[in-house]
Fold this sequence. Notes:
Layout: H1 7-17, H2 22-29, H3 33-47, H4 52-61
Amino acid sequence: MPEQLTPREAEVLRLLAWGYTRKDMAERLGIGERTVEFHQRSGMRRLGMATRRELVAFAVTSGWMLIPP
């Protein structure tokens, strides 16, 4: 997990990289979709990423995708 992320941001971004929808993440984590969106935006901003594609590329090249959701 990248050190600058909160545990929740890391969890949301990992699920996003694995292809989960916002609705699926909200149900899995027991939080609202707007909260998922907040954590997603906050985490991507901390990592300096603007798109889901950048996030997935980072997750694959860093080995972060090896951690199952």
